[in-house]
Design a protein that fits this description.
GO terms for molecular function: transcription coregulator activity. This is Mediator of RNA polymerase II transcription subunit 31. The chain is built from 7 helices and no strands. The protein is mainly alpha-helical. It has a single domain, classed as Orthogonal Bundle (Arc Repressor Mutant, subunit A). α2 runs antiparallel to α7. About 15% of the residues are buried.
Amino acid sequence: MDPPEDGERFVAELEFVQCLSAPHYLNWLAQNRYFEDPAFVSYLEYLLYWKEPKYAKYLQYPHALFFLELLQSPEFRKEIARSTVTEFIHTQQFRFWQHGGKSG
């Protein structure tokens, strides 16, 4: 799917993938049992096409791809439901941004 072919779908999927960069949103999805729905989990797998450079270039929050990859793991989908895990990830993400994307 190229952006010009199905613009509405492209934008909807782009916005959804970018939402995956928000740990609290992932927690909300887990708390509301979205990750227990096989169709939703399959949709997350389908969205991996965003890792291709021709699509990834449209992302404003490319670390959303990191979370999309983590969401392929049943263990991560279970753990992100815990508020302590969500807060830890959120804090680490903030620190990464705070230091200009440099670790350490």
